[in-house]
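Subject: for your reference before the review

Hello V.,

The reviewers asked for a structural picture of the protein, and I figured it would be easier to keep everything in one thread rather than splitting it across files. Below is the amino acid sequence we used in the manuscript, unchanged from the supplementary table.
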Amino acid sequence: MALLSADTLLAEYTLNIRKTHSERLLPLIDALLRESAVEREQLEAVAVAVGPGSFTGIRIGVATARALAQGLAIPAAGVSTLKALAEAVPTPGALICPLLDARRNEVYGALYRRQSAPSLRLEELIAPAATALDNLIGQLHRYQEPIIFTGEGLAAYGPPLTAALGSQAVLPPAPLRLCRASWVALCGRRLLERNPAASYEELLPQYLRRPEAERRLAERQKEGSP
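And here is what came back from the structure prediction:
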């Protein structure tokens, strides 16, 4: 989580450990505000990564952001996790492919190009989707130029990417692949500049595919149908 004041990053916490989000999130928010000497009532907006990613983590994050925005009567912005990952790559003109492990031999991926100065905004070339890695590689082959990959999906899929794309695939060190809250906050601020009245009611998870429990239920129902 992170706290921005205009373009200044006041504080940020990053925990890359598998612990119960519901137990840690609210105490960490309180600690972040306390260490920054900011009262909760001073918050002017909230931003949250709405997915894709862990279904449980997304639900907890979105529910917490909705509660904060509603309780404080402030606007709220939902940010694509993939776009927030791509924001960490500042190189003008670069092709950027954020990647997350979607399980079941699939990845969550997208492709962006960093525009040149002065805008430096991200242009979406391949929309976020859950897809087989081979399908994504087939789309990336068309660009015939280096692609900077990022995201925790590289832990599992980095080797097959480099095998398929060779020098076209540029992989950063592992610590640079995390989705940092400061980039989510920056993306959220830009969204709110375009829509300053965005309501917490618009915050909805973006799973990109059905949760596993729903998928299994549908399969059981299909098997039981005549």
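For the response letter, the relevant points are probably these. Residues 147 and 169 are 5 Å apart (CA to CA). The domain at 89-177 is CATH 3.30.420.40 (Nucleotidyltransferase; domain 5).

Happy to draft the paragraph if you're swamped.

O.
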